[in-house]
């Protein structure tokens, strides 16, 4: 039974879950804990690494994309604090996100001959574009199809963004967070290469709702080899939480680190 979903996005980045709705959504899913891990952005509504609200533990987290060799991977920081270095880095990343968002929207509008009428502001991301295209009356796309045909990596409307190198990103998070881990290792082109990075991390996302069958054995080996804390979450970009996450014992192990 999932009691902690440690990978949730809100409207602070590219999710649809408003900050005020996180706790009700958690309670509806039967969760006792949620980590808010918005992309490249700290959450202004969380003023401590861990807070308790209406019986739900909220962990202040962040998901940070970094460059690691030939691929880009996502790091999850838990128990986040606002250091000067991390604040400056995410501010720069958000400026780049806004510029990238404008470029992607321009490409999509030109290709489809439509006006998306979206507001591009800090936190804007590709899921926002996908939802806007799917909602437009002159298209028959669903959000997944927008990624597949238009804005996914390597697609005609894809625009790369600037990200820090792995060592820099890990250092920024290590100085600001209690726990730093690798997100969804089987979503990368080279899962083995991504898992090799866990030698330098504290944790790895063990439970995740992949859209294809995976063998968790390589993750379990990395956990055993590098003494990693296993984490997990739904990577929710909507209001449905708890699709994946931690059972009670695994959550207690994470909480012990956060309380330490």
Structure, explained:
This protein is an alpha/beta fold. It folds into two domains: 4-82 and 164-259, Alpha-Beta Barrel (TIM Barrel); 90-151, no CATH class. 36% of the residues lie in helices and 18% in strands. The chain has eight helices and eight strands, in the order E-H-E-E-E-E-H-H-H-H-E-H-E-H-E-H. It has helices at 22-28, 84-112, 126-135, 143-151, 166-176, 191-196, 217-226, 248-259, and strands spanning 4-8, 33-36, 50-53, 56-68, 71-78, 179-182, 203-207, 229-232. Strands 1, 2, 3, 4, 5, 6, 7 and 8 form an eight-stranded mixed sheet that branches. A hairpin with a 2-residue loop joins strand 3 and strand 4. Helix 3 packs across helix 4 (143-151). The two termini are 25 Å apart.
Report a brief summary of the structure.
The chain is built from 8 helices and 8 strands.
For this structure, what is the CATH homologous superfamily of the largest domain?
Metal-dependent hydrolases
Q: CATH topology of the largest domain, anyone? A: TIM Barrel
Proportion of residues in extended strands: 15-25%
What quaternary form is this?
single chain
Low-pLDDT windows of residues: none
Query: How many H/I helices?
Result: 8
Number of domains: 2
Largest sheet: 8 strands, mixed
Helical residue percent? Answer: 25-40%
Shape: globular
């Amino acid at each position: 039974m999932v009691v902690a979903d440690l990978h949730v996005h809100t409207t602070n980045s590219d999710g649809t879950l408003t900050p005020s709705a996180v706790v009700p959504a958690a309670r509806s899913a039967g969760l006792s804990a949620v980590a808010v891990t918005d992309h490249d952005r700290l959450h202004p509504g969380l003023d401590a690494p861990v807070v308790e609200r209406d019986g739900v533990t909220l962990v202040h987290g962040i998901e940070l994309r970094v460059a690691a060799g030939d691929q880009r991977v996502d790091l999850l920081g838990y128990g986040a604090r606002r250091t000067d270095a991390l604040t400056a880095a995410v501010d720069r990343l958000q400026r780049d996100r806004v510029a990238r968002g404008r470029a992607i929207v321009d490409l999509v509008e030109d290709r489809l001959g439509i006006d998306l009428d979206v507001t591009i502001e800090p936190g804007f991301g590709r899921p926002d574009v996908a939802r806007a295209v799917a909602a437009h009356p002159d298209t028959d796309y669903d959000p997944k199809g927008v990624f597949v045909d238009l804005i996914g990596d390597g697609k005609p409307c894809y625009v790369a963004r600037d990200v820090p190198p792995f060592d820099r990103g890990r250092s920024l998070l290590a100085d600001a967070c209690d726990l730093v881990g690798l997100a969804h290792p089987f979503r990368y082109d080279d899962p083995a290469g991504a898992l090799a990075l866990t030698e330098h991390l504290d944790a790895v996302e063990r439970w995740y709702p992949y859209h294809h069958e995976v063998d968790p054995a390589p993750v379990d080996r990395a956990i055993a080899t590098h003494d990693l804390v296993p984490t997990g979450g739904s990577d929710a970009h909507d209001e449905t939480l708890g699709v994946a996450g931690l059972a009670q014992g695994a959550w207690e192990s994470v909480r012990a680190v956060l309380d330490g």
